């Protein structure tokens, strides 16, 4: 239910609907996009970034909030734990129970390794569960991995590590096949052909989906498979520090029970960081579409252990976060809504951009429309633009919304908004960590032996922006890859004496650099309690 | 100015703004959540919650992240429910009626009370999908249960001890793997990649100067 003061604007949107459906707005030129991003994208706000004073990326700028936790104190001192008496001893330790961690666990287990997952919440509590729109793979006759490569490389501003991107696109069809074989229900027609759509910045319709529960369907299936294989999942237990041995290779992690705060030691021949993203850091004060646990823990653990970050200064702001009602402020409105035909419309009922520009461009364009051109819709708690969802029913026929985006219909329906009949209000929301730890194609970090990374904690697969549907893809491709590599690698590993020397050294560096802070990290969970 | 309402968290009274969800209201009251909080967007099922409005007999259920507080709401979260999850090998099971009888025989003890459907936080027709599972109609069971977030409220209310979300999970996997039509273009493409059909194209892209890829990108043809 919208407040009365929006009636005039809604009427303008309705009046222009037929005309707006027929109207095909031009796509921006490369130069227009560049100028738009520089002026309006949050990544270009220099005052929101700070230079790292210590660690592998010393001298580089990252978001202020990330800088603070990367240079914060450890939660423990070396003598808080007895490393000679590990509570767990495994071949492959996986930190994180989302899509990447679960895929890695299944493949490592398949390869015969002794594998264990630790996760600070439950298995499946992850951004994967919330991915709505779909997963890309070039599996149609008019498409090819090379075309997929060009789309993703361009969409990421030609900054992706090509060896990672080529793995992503070439392994994509097999990833879909693997998921299908596990029982994931992709949308298909009666002949078995995948029903695919465009995403922002794609040149072919290669977005595979499971309604608008794509990530949830994948995640619950992977979780079921992990449980079927009896892979140990230690839940409500966070990794708070990596452990190395006297040869300088990775050797496990210090764990903390989230409820009792008990410290535990996991000894492991290989470790896979699959801790996901950072939306709950609320960079620049943005709301987020992310999971409760998205606090960049893996970046902190890896950085302290000497791993390198790549593109940590680039974040993805999803153009269409819910801006109204306030109970779902920042929640994801899937890009699939635009794939199915809904256009972005300003307060006056005017279409102001092509709906399927890449996410960074679309976000910047919405910010410009609201904050510079003053064509935004005032929601009562901020600005937004209309996303004219009733267009979908006009284009695809009645019932399209219920069939293809039921989760969206439900989310707004709970607050009295029928998206089949009424448009919704959107504004960019912090969505994805483009950057992360630097890896080689086998998933190992570039400079810490036997430390692997998969999923959103990796940097470099997508470059400086990510296309819709390439994240669900990367967690599967690189999750599986890291699981296989770690399972093979652990056969060559003999561990020496375990230590936390790197943690002590990092503390010294903090001191030497003159950093004064009371913060400890990883952050683990955001604090939303009301401070009275 | 915020309107305040009284709520009772596990019986204890707190005054909170009336526009908050139950989850936000708990945080407003001072709870730092660890259990019972996940995606905060209605997809993960971590925040199953039981409530009753004072003076009302009916016990209702919801997701705490998706439901606004009301005045005189008595709230108890249900962050974990001991569902039965049977272990099976997806490669060895077959989509026959027997598999449900083997793994989840309790579904045949359903007494038709419909408490599951009434309690579903996603407003699914839970009893109906269990009926489909009983008959081995896994495609229908999969479709009917598709929006399930596995919060477990249905099972908490079930007198027959059925773990509905796990039954549906099995049905969906059976449907996805065995019953849904095979995708030929996917199999063809995987074969082509394994045969090296795109090797040269990709190798070319790996070497190509950035300017040439930019040109390719900026002039690419976009499928209508």
Number of helices of chain B: 10
Structural class of chain B: alpha+beta
The overall number of domains of chain B is 3
Gyration radius from CA atoms of chain B, angstroms: 25 Å
Strand ordering within the main sheet of chain B: 2-1-5-3-4
What is the CATH C-level name of the largest domain in chain A? Answer: Alpha Beta
Overall 3D shape of chain A: globular
The average pLDDT value of chain A, as a whole number, equals: 97
What is the CA–CA distance across the termini of chain B?
50 Å
CATH fold-level topology of the largest domain in chain A: FAD/NAD(P)-binding domain
CATH superfamily of the largest domain in chain A: FAD/NAD(P)-binding domain
Question: Topology, pairings included?
Answer:
The complex is a heterodimer of chains A (532) and B (224).
Chain A: H1 7-22, H2 30-40, E1 49-51, E2 61-63, H3 64-70, E3 88-95, H4 99-110, E4 115-118, H5 127-130, E5 135-136, H6 145-155, H7 162-170, H8 172-182, E6 207-208, H9 214-228, E7 233-234, E8 237-245, E9 250-257, E10 263-273, H10 297-304, E11 309-310, E12 315-322, H11 336-339, E13 344-345, H12 359-371, E14 377-378, E15 383-387, H13 390-396, H14 400-404, H15 406-413, E16 424-433, E17 436-438, E18 451-453, E19 458-459, H16 470-489, E20 498-499, H17 501-512
Parallel strand pairs in A: 3-4, 3-10, 4-7, 10-18, 17-19
Antiparallel strand pairs in A: 1-2, 5-6, 8-9, 8-20, 9-10, 11-17, 12-16, 13-15, 14-15, 15-16
Chain B: E1 4-9, E2 12-17, H1 22-29, E3 48-53, E4 60-63, E5 73-77, H2 97-103, H3 115-119, H4 126-134, H5 138-144, H6 153-156, H7 164-179, H8 184-194, H9 199-207, H10 210-218
Parallel strand pairs in B: 1-5
Antiparallel strand pairs in B: 1-2, 3-4, 3-5
